[in-house]
Amino acid sequence: MSETIIDIKGLNVSYEKKNVLNNVYAHIDKGYSYGVIGPNGAGKSTFFKAILGLVEYTQGNITVFGENVEKVRKKLAYIPQKDNFDWDFPATVVDIVLMGRYPHKKIFQKLNHHDKAMAFEAMDKMQIGELANRQIGRLSGGQQQRVFIARALCQEAEIFFLDEPFAGVDVLTEEKIIQNINLLKETGKTFVLVHHDLTTVQKYFDKVILINQRIIAFGDTSTIFTQENLSRCYGSQLSILHKILEL
Which helix (H) or strand (E) holds 115? Predict the structure, then answer.
């Protein structure tokens, strides 16, 4: 039986009196990969931020592991879109990965040998150990994504939220990241990704959440990712998909 680790009930989020998310009900179960799918402006990133407690919601309730998110924040890792990072910041790969240990530290408490060992273990899992002393800005897009997943592993996160992780990444690197994610799922980790390429949804994700300001449908990819549900989600934008999807 699946274990629900995030439960969302009646979620409403508004910006400047405009409803961005409306009456959202959904849940996320442990050990699966989820694709959050929908047109531009559908509220996908806001959906992430509401779960993470990064934006206020006007109505509804969200529990994570049965608790308010503030009580379990260490178990959640958020990797935002690439545009949100300063890639010229003078930090090495190991510097970035070690940042995952700070949520476990008190103010002014220093990192120790155990923290560093965890960082190198996380880098090895993501096959970036040889890049430890490389400047983050000198890496490829795929390598950068794996660095931030390694940071989340070092944090001992249980749920990983990735916002458009494949933007600017070539197909081979994209598939390598998915392979890493699939291996981590076997250890009970859960992944929730905002994703735009509809041609790879069935290949990449166990479950999908179709969203357009409200939840259109969510559940197993094999049953939810259908022409009917996509039409409800994308409306007139769906016409181009007839050329690329075989549903």
Answer: helix 113-125
Torsion-angle region of residue 10: left (phi > 0), alpha (psi -120 to 50) or beta? left
Would you give the end-to-end CA distance of the chain in angstroms? 28
Lookup: tokens for 126: 């993501």
> What pLDDT, in 10s, does the model give residues 128-181?
999 999 999 899 888 988 898 999 999 999 999 999 988 888 888 889 889 999
Q: How far apart, in whole angstroms, are the C-alpha atoms of residue 61 and residue 38?
A: 22
Instruction: Decide if 160 contacts 6 (C-beta within 8 A).
Output: no
Distance, CA of 233 to CA of 247 (rounded, Å): 15
For domain 4-243, the CATH superfamily is: P-loop containing nucleotide triphosphate hydrolases (3.40.50.300)
Domain boundaries, the chain: 4-243
- Within 10 A of 75 (CB to CB), how many other CB atoms are there? 18
**pLDDT tens digits, residue range 69-120?**
999 999 999 988 876 677 778 899 999 999 999 988 888 889 999 999 999 9
Q: How far apart are CA 69 and CA 63, in angstroms?
A: 7
Reading the block at residue 119, the tokens are 């960082």
What is the pTM assigned to this prediction? Answer: 0.89
